[in-house]
Amino acid sequence: MPPRTSLICLLAFALVGCEGANPSLSEAQSRTLPPAAPLPAGPVPAQSVSASRRTAITTAVERVAPAVVTVQTETVERVPVDFMEYFMGGRSGERRNAGIGSGFVVRGDGVIVTNAHVIAGASRVSVAMRDGTTYDATVVGADEANDLAVVRIKAKDLPVAPLGRSADLIVGEWTIAIGNPFGFVLGNNEPSVSVGVVSAVGRNLAGRSEAGGAYIDMIQTDAAINPGNSGGPLVNASGEVIGVNSSIYSPSGGSVGLGFAIPIDRTKRIVEDLLEHGTVRQPWVGIRLQTPQAASARDVAKAGAIVARVVPGSPAEKAGVRTGDQVVGAGTRPVRNPFDWEARLLDLRVGESLPITVRRGGRDLRLTLQVADAPEVSAQKITVLRELQLITLTDAIRQERGIASSAGALVYRISDRIRDEIGLQEGDVIAQVGQSRVNSAEAASSAIDRYGARGPVFLVFERNRQYYQTSFYLR
Questions:
Q1: What is the b/e burial string over 125-149, where b = at least 16 CB atoms within 10 angstroms of the residue's CB?
Q2: pLDDT band at 211 (very low <50, low <70, confident <90, very high)
Q3: Dist. CA 17–CA 9, nearest whole Å
């Protein structure tokens, strides 16, 4: 019992003092410690507490959150059919899947920005406002390369998110991610808010993101971004949208403080193109860089931007760029690797002039490129099967895309239905139809009609410098 009593006393003394303690020690402490500050005479005024709760963050959220929406999609997926089950009234061979993401209003008449991967393959898109009001939406256009899309709803006088600038972001400044993580798991349309800082700018991310694929020249933030936040705004402390939340890097599938947003300056340009043309004019200069033989992304970042090929007749050839040149600058930005070069191309507009600096034989040369449309944009389009557009493969297109075939018909546009049934994709090159070699889009169209009138159409096509086969019947 005595040891137990001693332990209790030590604990009590450590916390509040105890009667069994040495009085001289207590007196010494009272002489050396400063006197305690007097407590306030009354309760803290409620008004001052309320005022202290309001910050730049709360003000920014109040400014932007009303313009944040939930984007809901429905996709149709083909699944194997059990014929016995089908005849008994079972599965039809199709499965409908629901998807969800975020977006924000950029024009009061119903124009909304989201991610391309949010609406990809959707047969139906709808938009739910903060108050639960839901509208059917139409897709104005999408740019898969930049993972941006514009949808429109029939509405008026909607709250609009103020757009800021991303060119002058400061690493360490506040960021606010607003969206709908995990969709309706949280029970309503009220967007969620998470806060962090700008962790970095100009980040390049390849793979292992929420949406997969490669993202170039992104804003990195540690504000929590989770699946469902895609397409929502990244906001600064002034209540201005500075980016579109697009992806996360995560080994677990949830936020680990590595979120990425598409800069708003690039977003503005793409939205303007989509609203005006329904598509994005792809800027082209005709330079293909060497593919670095590197073991990691870090090694690629140090590899330099070496010109492997200059497309004949391209803006680069006209400006004097040569194979073997090292691009070290583009506009006002340094170019240290292929990522930097691709990032600079994303900010270009067709018709602009792009000053570049190339290193050749130990000397730096200043050249100016006149940015043009990609060569396939101006090529004549041949429509096949009403849902398939082909263009004749030219030398410029072949070199720009790194195509092995010397002749053929490039798949320029294709509907989801034809893609699923035939197996072709945009960018494939039809090299042979039946026993006929293809040297133009017109030849491919004629051969498909000719063989299709007699039986199955047999195709040989190139994809990523490999050849594949497919066959189908005309209906």
A1: bbbbbbeeeebebebbbbbebbbbb
A2: very low
A3: 8
147 is catalytic: yes
**Cβ atoms within 10 A of the Cβ of 398, count?**
19
E strand or H helix that includes residue 49: helix 46-53
The total of other beta-carbon atoms located within 10 Å of residue 389's CB is: 18
What does the alpha-carbon distance between residue 292 and residue 40 come to, in Å, rounded to a whole number?
68
Distance of CA 114 to the CA centre of its chain: 9
As given in the structure block, the two tokens for residue 64 are: 């932007």
Compute the distance between CA of residue 86 and CA of residue 83 in angstroms, rounded to an integer: 5
Contact yes or no for 178/64 (Cβ under 8 A): yes
pLDDT in tens, 404-462: 898 999 999 888 877 777 788 899 999 988 878 899 999 999 888 887 776 778 888 99
Nearest alpha carbon to residue 128 among 104, 109, 162: 104
Q: How far apart (Å, rounded) are the C-alpha atoms in residues 113 and 151? A: 7
Q: Measured between alpha carbons, how far is 244 from 177 in angstroms, rounded to an integer?
A: 9
Can you say whether the dihedral through the CA atoms of 415, 419, 422, 426 is positive or negative? positive
Neighbours of 78 (CB within 10 A): 10
Q: d(Cα 450, Cα 236) in Å, to the nearest integer?
A: 60
Catalytic residue among 166, 194, 209, 230: 230
Query: How far apart, in whole angstroms, are the C-alpha atoms of residue 189 and residue 70?
Result: 7
Residue 146 DSSP one-character state: T
CA distances from 188 to 15, 133, 144, 202, 317 (A): 47, 11, 29, 35, 56
Choosing from 102, 117, 143, 209, which is the catalytic residue?
117
Q: Which tens digits make up the pLDDT trace of 136-187?
A: 999 999 888 788 999 999 999 999 999 999 999 999 999 999 998 766 555 5
Residue 57's φ and ψ, nearest 5 degrees, are -65, -50
Q: How many CA atoms lie within 13 A of 366 on its CB side?
A: 4
Radius of gyration of the chain (CA): 30
Closest alpha carbon to 422 in 459, 379, 464 = 459
Helix, strand, coil percent content, the chain, rounded in steps of 5: 25, 35, 40
User: DSSP for 65-126?
Assistant: GGGEEEEEEEEEEE----HHHHHTT---SEEEEEEEEEEEEEETTTEEEE-HHHHTTEEEEE
Residues 71 and 191 sit within 8 Å (Cβ to Cβ) = no
State yes or no: is 230 an active-site residue: yes
As a whole number of angstroms, the distance between CA 449 and CA 469 comes to: 18
Let me know how long the chain is: 475
Give per-residue burial for 192-203: e unless 16+ CB within 10 Å, then b. Answer: bbbbbebbebeb
The residue behind tokens 């040297």 is 439
- Picking from 221, 144, 207, the residue whose alpha carbon sits closest to that of residue 178 is 221
Indicate the SS3 state at residue 157.
coil
